[in-house]
Task: structure prediction
Amino acid sequence: MTIPSDRVSGEDLEVWASAAPDGPVRRRGPASSRTTPPAGAAAPAAGAPFPRASSPARDDYQGCFGCGGDSPSGLRIVETRVDGTSVEAEFAVRDVHQGAPGLAHGGLLATAMDEVLGSVAWRLGGRYVTGRLETDFLAPVPVGATVRLRAWCNGVHGRKAYVEGEGRIGAPDGPVAVRAAALFVEVPEEHFTKERLN
Ligand SMILES: CCCCCCCC/C=C\CCCCCCCC(=O)SCCNC(=O)CCNC(=O)[C@H](O)C(C)(C)COP(=O)(O)OP(=O)(O)OC[C@H]1O[C@@H](n2cnc3c(N)ncnc32)[C@H](O)[C@@H]1OP(=O)(O)O
Result:
């Protein structure tokens, strides 16, 4: 398998022990050039308060599909540890999250990554939305499993924050089921109000 060297850095590549007949397969990591910080990107700040002035960020807002308690089929992601801008979180895969019978739908796993990576971005101190989200699905996740999420910021460049993370099955050192890299873009407060229909 050939990996275009202009698309990924050396750190993005991993050698995967594989039973493939031609030996170990080199697989691309989750980050493409569009989700990799450019040279000169700043290191993330140590962690800043959420800018809670905007209405979707109210302390009592429970409508989020990822983390809110008001969404009956929501993921109900709970943050378990925050260290600066890095976040650990978890959620339980329920019947309503199925794709194939008994297994989590991939789109919901991508949603979980969007949520936890977004939480990292908001800890930079601005209001951020997802501009691009790249996801690798590495193992099926059974209904009933707890997915342990971990996410961190690789750098900030102007309005752009480069965030990465992973989800493991069952335990913090369990098998990696999903990996993601994203570009979050800082937006003004009006972003969350100007297009609303209700
Ligand atoms: C959101 C939650 C709020 C509640 C918070 C509660 C408290 C916190 C608790 C918990 C954490 C939150 C967790 C949330 C998690 C979920 C997050 C989501 O699902 S967000 C919804 C989905 N995303 C959108 O709806 C964006 C839709 N897109 C847009 O609005 C625009 O396209 C936007 C803002 C992304 C960019 O538009 P422009 O006009 O402002 O700016 P331009 O110039 O186009 O882009 C700026 C820079 O970014 C690059 N860029 C933009 N999109 C890119 C892309 N897809 N790929 C690569 N680069 C991109 C551009 O090339 C440009 O770069 P150059 O400055 O020129 O270097």
